[in-house]
Amino acid sequence: MQCRACKSNLIPFLSLGEMPLANAFRKEGDTSIEKKYDLSVGFCPICFLVQLLFAPFPEELFLDYVYTPSVSSSTTLHFKKTAHALIARFNLGREHILLEVGSNDGTFLKFFKECGIGILGVDPAKNIAEAANRQGLTTLPEFFSQKLAKKLVQEKGVKANLVFGANVLAHVPEIVDFVQGVKTILAPSGTAVFEFPYVRGLMENKFDTIYHEHIFYYSLLALQNLFTRADLEVYDIEMVPTQGGSLRIFVSHTGAFPITNAVETLAAKEQADGFTEEATYQKIGRNVELLKEELRILLQNIKKEGKRIAGYSAPAKGNILLNYFGIGKEFLEFLVDKSELKQGLLTPGTNFYVYPLTKIYEEKPDYLLVLCWNIADEVVELLDDYKKAGGKFIIPIPEIRII
Ligand SMILES: [Zn+2]
């Protein structure tokens, strides 16, 4: 398998085997065969880009995407803060244009529109793009590409002062074409800002962020290689606490802005931590196997004591963990999730019926395995009554904890 960025041969370091799509919940009584695809990750020894060896076609993943950020209040708040920070930093006003790639339902665009800034969203999920357009948040139902960028520049005669993409950089298989598109559409003194999960998470056992939608797991060093080839430059970088550790990068035309210390410091740290070496990645695979064994033994011992365990929440990452660790109905009696969109459906691969949270108080399990470990504190606070009644929480990642 070849690197999607530089065509060198990839070195596989972790294989989760055949897995269902992590968000493909099923209806009860669905008798169709569940589709599964190989889920393996490799490292490029030349440009350092970590990526899936095989990815299903994007059409299969994104054309009818159900996730809309405005559903979650913490995500909306994150977008609002980000929008206002960017408007202030770049002094954006009526004469400027924001292009958002992967704009979903327009939650982020809205904050810019409110300030009178020109907006354009691009999102391939037709149903979601339509919903955004109905609210006056102009959104093209397309995949962003070099071809689309050229067309937009030609038709509109202007370029974007700010290009923004949250989580999109990890999702696009044709990444070289995508980056060339950014080069085409970015105004001479404009900035492109992207947010995505940081590859360091894999080294901290957060392997459950690996799913078919996430094709790439970026280090700064890999990004520098990727953008340099399109005559672009990463000139600033920030850490974002969402999703258990993300990076936010600021990209410009080469030489447009001075490179910050933050970029130089992080690049040096990645070098020192072995981000350019195969052995660092092979270690991830071994650590995940150790975690799997440790968690399975813990759950087995709890069962032997005659205690009862249930699953808390069914995020994409939780479905990956349950499937790969082989945690099924012999361990978990049932599973609950706050989201009404998921309640009443069956989890991909493991077939747990998703109950509302009230089930916890009816059944009173001794332990809850918290699959949304990135917001474990929030969960413990939310289920204070369960805890006061003697209930315990198992947090599986980054290391196993019992609260
Ligand atoms: Zn490469």
CATH C-level name of the largest domain: Alpha Beta
What are the segments in which pLDDT stays under 50 over at least 5 consecutive residues?
Answer: none
Q: In the CATH scheme, what's the topology name of the largest domain?
A: Rossmann fold
Strand residue percentage: 15-25%
Q: What is the overall shape? A: globular
Class derived from helix and strand content: alpha/beta
Structure description:
The structure is a single chain. With 403 residues, this protein is of the alpha/beta class. The protein has 3 domains: 11-54, no CATH class; 60-258, Vaccinia Virus protein VP39 (Rossmann fold, 3-Layer(aba) Sandwich), CATH 3.40.50.150; 280-402, 3-Layer(aba) Sandwich (Rossmann fold). It is built from 14 helices and 17 strands. Strands 6-5-4-7-8-11-10 form a 7-stranded mixed beta sheet, with helices on both faces. A 6-stranded mixed beta sheet has the order 14-13-12-15-16-17. Strands 1-2-3-9 form a 4-stranded antiparallel beta sheet. α2 (73-89) packs parallel to α3 (107-113) and α5 (146-156) runs parallel beside α6 (175-185). The relative contact order is 0.12. Bound molecules: zinc ion. Residues 3, 5-6, 8, 44, 46-47, 49 line the site of zinc ion.
Please outline the helices and strands.
Elements: E1 11-20, E2 36-43, E3 50-52, H1 58-62, H2 73-89, E4 97-101, H3 107-113, E5 118-122, H4 126-134, E6 139-140, H5 146-156, E7 160-166, H6 175-185, E8 186-197, H7 200-203, E9 216-217, H8 220-228, E10 232-240, E11 246-253, H9 261-272, H10 278-304, E12 309-312, H11 316-325, E13 335-336, E14 354-355, H12 358-363, E15 367-370, H13 376-382, H14 384-388, E16 392-395, E17 401-402
Parallel strand pairs: 4-5, 4-7, 5-6, 7-8, 12-13, 12-15, 13-14, 15-16
Antiparallel strand pairs: 1-2, 2-3, 3-9, 8-11, 10-11, 16-17
Helix pairs in contact: 2-3, 5-6
The structure holds zinc ion.
Zinc ion is lined by residues 3, 5-6, 8, 44, 46-47, 49.
